[in-house]
Write a structure and sequence with these properties.
2 domains; Rossmann fold; SIR2/SIRT2 'Small Domain'; binds nicotinamide-adenine-dinucleotide; 3-stranded antiparallel sheet; histone deacetylase activity, NAD-dependent; 6-stranded parallel sheet; alpha/beta; 230 residues; 9 helices
């Protein structure tokens, strides 16, 4: 059974109509990252941050998985493969394509988090700063998203899986955001072969054993067909 750890980023969802991140000069959907994706930004203007993620949630709900998400779900269903998808994405397109073993290292648009008591619950479609936490009752609701300066989720588990993998594949990620950008070096040090599938060479492209360039909707199904021997 081949153990494969897949890292995905915003690029895999681009052809589903969800815009990537740094494509436009450090702006995310016309907003400065500092304003909408940091704890300081949230403290400064929680209304703006909630409005921003409410819009991202609506866009994710309106989007549908593309052939790249579907191909990964098909590979996971194959009995010869043991797949873990580690995604930096906060959308749910992997799950909606049928992937089951998905780890959201940067959180999810569909989770809510109380920053007073750390209780978590499913996010309503529209969130506001005045929403009370269902556990402690305080108006301290935030999206369960990992912002810049915060520690991504389940890192020990990711590193453990990475070191035990037979292959590491990075798909649609710019290689600018750590610690995910360091996974290729971690895999390399553990002697795990590495493959990059991205529209253009990423910041760390040269570290991969192999790097293929093109749209994820073409490259990922092609690679999955190779794995499945078709
Ligand atoms: P990024 O936006 O920094 O980089 C995207 C990469 O994908 C680029 O290298 C680009 O060349 C490549 N790309 C673009 N279109 C592609 C396509 N059709 N096929 C293959 N590759 C394509 O994204 P990142 O590295 O994931 O880092 C951004 C951060 O922003 C993440 O932490 C994530 O949480 C957040 N984010 C998430 C979403 C989402 O959930 N869909 C969208 C935007 C940003």
């Amino acid at each position: 059974m081949a153990k494969i750890v897949i890292l995905t980023g915003a690029g895999i969802s681009a052809e589903s109509g969800i815009r990537t991140f740094r494509a436009s000069d450090g702006l995310w959907e016309e907003h400065r990252i500092e304003d909408v994706a940091t704890p300081e930004g949230f403290e400064h203007d929680p209304d703006l941050v909630h409005r921003f993620y409410n819009a991202r949630r609506a866009a994710a709900m309106a989007a549908t998985p593309n052939p790249a998400h579907e191909a990964l779900a098909e590979l996971e269903a194959d009995p010869g493969h043991d797949l873990l998808v580690v995604t930096q994405n906060v959308d749910d397109l992997h799950e909606r394509a049928g992937s089951q073993n998905v780890l959201h290292m940067h959180g999810s648009l569909f989770g809510a988090l109380c920053h007073a008591c750390e209780h978590r619950w499913p996010a309503p479609e529209v969130m506001a700063p005045s929403d009370p936490c269902p556990s402690c009752g305080r108006a301290a609701t935030r999206p369960d998203i990992v912002w810049f300066g915060e520690m991504p989720y389940r890192m020990e588990e990711i590193w453990h899986s990475l070191r035990a993998a037979d292959l590491f594949v990075s798909i649609g990620t710019s290689g600018n955001v750590y610690p995910a950008a360091g996974f290729v070096a971690d895999a390399m040090h553990a002697g795990v072969p590495t493959l990059e599938l991205n529209l253009e060479p990423s910041a760390g492209s040269r570290m991969f054993d192999e790097a293929r360039q093109g749209p994820a909707s073409v490259l990922v199904p092609e690679w999955v067909r190779e794995r499945l021997g078709g």
